[in-house]
Amino acid sequence: MELFVYIFAALFSVLNPLGAIPIYVGLTEHDSKAERFRTSLWTAINVFIILIISFFVGEYVINFFGISIDALRIAGGLVIASSGFALLSGQFSKKRGVNKKVTTDAQTRNDIALTPLAMPILAGPGAISLLIAFYQDYPELSDKTIICLSILAVAMAIFIILRSGHYLSRLLGASGIVAISRIIGFFVIAIGVQYISNAVVNIFKGI
């Protein structure tokens, strides 16, 4: 249970689905309830698939390119920490890596669940690098099973949050969502710093 909660909290903080609410609301404001339900469901499914693939295949990708796990931890930690700083300072891009062309294209087509919602808004490089590191840190099959369950729980939380996105947007307002995002940003920074420090310690031990 301790591992499950740790992985869930880390992934939830890095993905920050609450921060995606304004984008989701903007892209689905003219959709029917059925269409919003479908978008929320498929966004969660796509995020789950992306994270599971990253968890199991990511190690072989970094080995192919000759990248060490400690180098990945440092790079991932920098990405995660920079996202956390941006959340904490309130300077996080509202588009979260989505340029104007992608936004315009998303507003003119029906299927936005994969792009831009699932990727890159939710399942970005920070979450992917985090999962690759988890694969190395927890080699036991039982641990990997728990991590998969944590990923599933995060996907379910994303579905619930997006499904309630329009209601939460009205309830919390822009200032409420920003306040929550800043609190999450603090924990995201801590996760990034922890991964960088672990990698640096491992590198010095190997010297």
Automatic annotation (TrEMBL):
It is a multi-pass membrane protein. The chain crosses the membrane at residues 6-27, 39-62, 74-92, 113-135, 141-162, 174-196. It is found in: Cell membrane. InterPro entries: Multi_antbiot-R_MarC (IPR002771). GO terms for cellular component: plasma membrane. Keywords: Cell membrane, Membrane, Transmembrane, Transmembrane helix. PANTHER family: UPF0056 MEMBRANE PROTEIN YHCE. Belongs to the UPF0056 (MarC) family. This is UPF0056 membrane protein. It comes from Flavobacterium suncheonense GH29-5 = DSM 17707. The lineage of its organism: Bacteria, Pseudomonadati, Bacteroidota, Flavobacteriia, Flavobacteriales.
